[in-house]
Structure formats: C-alpha cells, structure tokens
Specification:
- By secondary structure, the chain is α/β, with parallel strands linked by helices.
- Helix content is 45%, strand content 17%.
- It is built from 15 helices and 14 strands.
- The chain has a six-stranded mixed β-sheet with strand order 3-4-14-9-10-13, with helices on both faces. The chain has a four-stranded parallel β-sheet with strand order 7-6-5-8, sandwiched between helices. Strands 1-2 form a two-stranded antiparallel ribbon.
- A hairpin with a 2-residue loop joins strand 11 and strand 12.
- Helix 4 packs parallel to helix 5, helix 4 crosses helix 9 and helix 13 packs across helix 14.
Length: 404
C-alpha cells in the first residue's frame, strides 16, 4: 500500500487507507458528526490552543524531558537509549494530554459529564483530574479484574470525585469496560461526552486523540536535536490502542531515515486468549465502531486477550497503526510478560525509574534493538507512564524471583 501524506489523513470520513471510519447506529452517527464539527472548529481556533497550551505548561508540567539512560545503555551494550519522560507528567502518564483536550471540548459543547473506560487506570485518573479541574461530572468504567490489579489508581479516581463503575462481564478487563461505557453513553449522548482513552473508536476520535498526543512528538523532535545534534535512528513505543506511540511517531513520519517500532504484548504465549498482539496475529475487522486489525474468531467476534499490562489488554488497535503496518512505515514487534517484567526491574535498578508495565514493553524491546543496531546509533523510547499503579501487582506475582 502506498503511503499518503500525513497531513491528508484521515480523510473526511475518518479513514486511514482501509481503516477507521464510523460503523455505528444512525442516531449515534448524528452525535459523532456534531463532535467532529465541534472539534474541527476548535482545532482552527488559536484561543483554544492557547488555553490548552497554558494548561500543558502550568498544570501538566510540559515539556516533559528527554533523558539519556547511560547505565541501561551500558548494560545493553549497543546503541544509546533515551527516554521521553511522559511518566513525569501530572497524573503520571501521557493520558493527560488528550484528556484535557477532550474535557475542554466537552465543556465548550455544553456537556455536563465525562464518561470513559480505563484498563490500567491511567486514562481514568487523567480524565477524573480533567473533570475536577473543569467542574464536570465523571463516570469511569473499569473491569473488576483491573480494579483489583490497579487499585491505587481506583483510589485516585475516587478521591478526585469520579464514580468508578465495576464491569463484571466477560474477562472483566479493558474490552468489557469499553463495551459498558459505550452502552451507558448510548443512553444519553446529549449531556454526556465519551472521552475515548486512545486512538480508537469511530471518527473523529482517532484523529482527535492523535492531534492532542502529537505534542509528545513535537517536543521530542526538538529536544533530541538540541541534545544530540541529530534525529534519533529509531523510535520505540508500546502499542495497545496506540495513543502514546502515535503521539511520538507523528512528528517523525516523514523522516524516512528514522525507523519506528511499535511494541505489542505477547503475553504468556501466542495461544488464543494468552496475548494481545493485534497487529502481529490479527486480521482486519470491525470493533467498537471502527475498522482495524483485530484479534477475532472465525465468526469475526473479538477474541479474548491477555497481557500483564492492563493498558495493552485490547483485541483491536488504532486505525492509523493498522494503516502504518500495511504501508511498512512502522515495524510492529512484540514482547512477552517475562521480558517486560525483566525490563521493569532493570530500568528501576539501573536508572531509578519505575516504569508502567506498559512502558516496560517498549524498554524491553529497546534493549534488544540497541544490541542489534550497535554503538553509534541512538534510540528514543516513549516512557509513557510510571509504575506506581503496578507495584503491588509486580511484588505479589514476581517479587520472589527478584529478591523481594
């Protein structure tokens, strides 16, 4: 597939090549059309960008720094490894970037409540934070398995004033949380605003979330050149839905000399139900109102998926990632649970940075890539979130193997 220029994607119907679009009931399509029109209006409004930029600087703490991981680099024994420190943002992850944008849009549209799903809880915390800041109600749908696994983030959401709604269906994880949030949204799309947590869902959400997350790539590109005098040789980011990855990649897509690697969760194995490597093992299909690569059964229904990282535990993926796979611009690789946990401890003990398990997938692949590329090359990794939320789970499940 020939790659279209970045500024021409998506098209007017929300398609990135063959992926994206809006596969939803007519009554909801009218609501989505209204959101798309409102977003395109504020996208062209300098006052909106000034307001959002002010919040990024004075509230979130942007720009987040780029850090050269010297000890991890020496341990890997190859290319230099750098991290874009999105874990240092207020709320501890990249999610605040699009949550503030979506919340501002919702308020300008006169909506009273934000509604969303969350897996690892980072999107939920960020959205609850934005709701508190802007005086909006907030309901967060979360699978019961993830509630137990990520309970520190559940507590944060409640402290911030959000209502956490447990989801007991299916595997009680991210996919089921999305199902429940969509169902609740359909009951009242006029006063609620569904703030989707990644570059997924019907148009305009993959476009809108990408645009808000593009601040990561813009900053990183400028910072890296100032720091090293050149662009990185490679970019690495984890991919579940894919918001942190597309945020980093977006500024570099036209820089053909910069290789890009999206890292999926291989989970326990590549047996059905034991991984969430959508771009590696899936095929095109429709989920939650959009077309993408999808882990699906013979009837086209989403398959059960698994990852130690709750934020990567999704059978679909952003439509732009699906398109970038087909065009060959981005290489999609995978890391299993054991490799991610090893990187979790390596980064903690070599650099004093406790990463989210999601981000540890990217760090693990960066170490492999550093050895492959060799000395003289430079890798920039999006460290999308911090691991406070994962500490109890990691200690309980893996602590003994690491002397805890």
């Amino acid at each position: 597939m020939k790659r279209i220029q970045q500024d021409q994607l998506p098209d007017s119907k929300g398609f990135f090549g063959d992926y994206g679009g809006s596969f939803i009931p007519p009554q909801l399509q009218a609501v989505m059309d209204g959101i798309a029109a409102a977003y395109l209006k504020i996208k062209a409004d300098p006052a909106f960008h000034e307001e959002l930029g002010g919040l990024y600087k004075h509230y979130v703490g942007r720009p987040s720094p780029v850090f050269r991981a010297d000890r991890l680099t020496r341990s890997a024994g190859g290319a230099e490894i750098y991290f874009k420190r999105e874990d240092l943002n207020h709320t501890g992850a990249h999610k605040i970037n699009h949550c503030l944008g979506e919340a501002l849009l919702a308020k300008k549209m006169g909506r009273k409540k934000l509604i969303a799903e969350t897996g690892a809880g980072q999107h939920g915390v960020a959205l609850a934070t934005a709701a508190a800041l802007l005086g909006l109600e907030c309901d967060i749908y979360m699978g019961e398995v993830d509630i137990q696994k990520e309970h520190p983030n559940v507590s944060r959401m409640k402290i911030l004033g959000a209502k956490v709604v447990p989801v007991a269906a299916g595997r009680q994880t991210l996919k089921e949380a999305v199902d429940a949030a969509f169902e609740a949204y359909l009951k009242d799309p006029e006063t609620q605003f569904y703030a989707i947590g990644s570059v997924v869902g019907p148009h305009p959400f993959p476009l809108m979330v990408r645009d808000f997350q593009a601040v990561v790539g813009r900053e990183a590109k400028k910072q890296f050149v100032e720091m090293t005098g050149a662009l990185p040789d490679a970019l690495v980011a984890c991919v579940g839905g894919g918001s942190n990855a597309i945020g980093l990649f977006s500024a570099f897509l036209d820089d053909e000399a910069v290789a890009m690697y999206g890292v999926e969760p291989a989970g326990i194995s590549f047996k059905d139900g034991e991984h969430a490597a959508t771009l590696t093992k899936g095929r095109p299909g429709v989920i939650h109102g959009f077309r993408c690569y999808l882990l699906q059964d013979d009837q086209g229904q989403p398959m059960k998926v698994y990852s130690a990282a709750s934020g990567l535990d999704y059978p679909g993926v952003g439509p732009e990632h699906s398109y970038l796979k087909d065009t060959g611009r981005v290489s999609y690789e995978y890391i299993n649970d054991a490799e991610a946990i090893e990187a979790f401890f390596s980064l903690s003990r070599l650099e004093g940075i406790i990463p989210a398990i999601e981000s540890a997938h990217a760090a693990a692949y960066a170490v492999k890539l550093a050895k492959k590329l060799g000395k003289g090359k430079k890798i920039l990794v999006n460290l999308s979130g911090r691991g406070d939320k994962d500490v109890d789970f990691v200690i309980e499940k893996y602590g003994a193997a690491y002397g805890l």
